[in-house]
Amino acid sequence: MFRNAYVPYKGYWASPFCRWQGSLQNQHAVELAAATAKRFFELRGITPDIFDGIVFGATVPQRMWFFDAPWFATLIGNPNIGGPHVAQACATSTVSINVAASYIEVGSNATVLVATCDRTSNCPNILWPNPSGFGGKPDFESWMVDGFSFEPTGDTGPLGTANNVVKERGITREESDALVLDRYMKYTMSTAEDRKFQKRYMLGVEVRLSKKPTALVEEDEGIIPCTAEGLARLRPVVPGSIITVGAQTHAADGNAGMIVTTKEKADELSADKAVSIQILSYGFARAKKAHMPEAPVPASAQALERAGITVSDLKAVKTHNPFSVNDIVMRKEMGIDDKIFNNYGCSLIFGHPQGPTTMRSAIELIEELVLKGGGYGLVAGCAAGDSGAALVIKVN
Question: Which residue has the higher pLDDT, 153 or 390?
Answer without folding.
Answer: 390
